[in-house]
């Protein structure tokens, strides 16, 4: 629950900004948690691994559209306003997800079924490219200087809540339907649920005002006609830094939170119910730690919280995967919870950190470009890579290497960054960088209004 001491305006910004991330990640989670079922429905094969790989490949290919969507919606958001851009993203995302639930199967129309699935996934990813970073931007610009980490962390908590909602839906389906019923029609239900969720999201978004920082920027005439080009020209270092810190973020999300139900059933040989139970508990605890970590970063700095969580993950990921493989559900659950909490702690300060890297007039576009390229390269194919690594090495612990490698790259990125917590947001791409922690902590007029 959002803290009571936040202003009503800040609460509305958080709820309005977060609702879309819930729906976006629910939509993606629905596919991830049903990957094994969808493999049978759309990619039937005598070899279950081939079906699963085909299903995850479809999941991953769609992510190449994310940067294009980031450029499109990010540019619209920087030129015409944050609210309109990510309201349209939620409308289109919900409609496309509903249509996936209406698709005929391979048994009905043959190869056209997986072709239509891939097309809808591509369009879905295009819309998703502007949603999460739009929420980062919108809430970050409403947030106060001293509590931006905490207040912005709710957007990421909303995203993982979407994962949790998707896993709960899959858990209920697994508990109430047989395997044959899931394959026949049960898999459609989570996708159909996107329509009412989307309607709620659009209603809440339409009641929001525009970001005050965007309004000030508009009044000062700082809006640029080509924000992506401006970002590449003036903010190359922040672009690379946003790309780098998103590496562990995305690998952690898509290995620890999305791929784990499949890993529990196909590699650890636990039941569908056990795998879903583990996911529900792990994600709930990860969400709990996000605002705590966000608030912590307001006190000790973003780099310190991100660095410690990433460093501990570097050391503990392999031992925790080893603990999972002991054929004991209690130990596997404990290990899954531990890895998820580490990811949750890392995710808490991320929204504020991303927003603080970029100036207002290119924030949405620059962040969307960098983040979504990182998602496409490291996140979307994470489940596919994990499945392939296990199949090729015959080592069920091999996905841990991918997580460890991502932690190393993100730690290198963090070493190149200066601390940005408790500093005013920059207004334009030519602005002097924010002053370091310990110097003037005066807020801009926009931020004063959100205290």
UniProtKB/TrEMBL annotation:
Protein name: MFS transporter
Naturally occurring in which organism (per UniProt): Kyrpidia spormannii
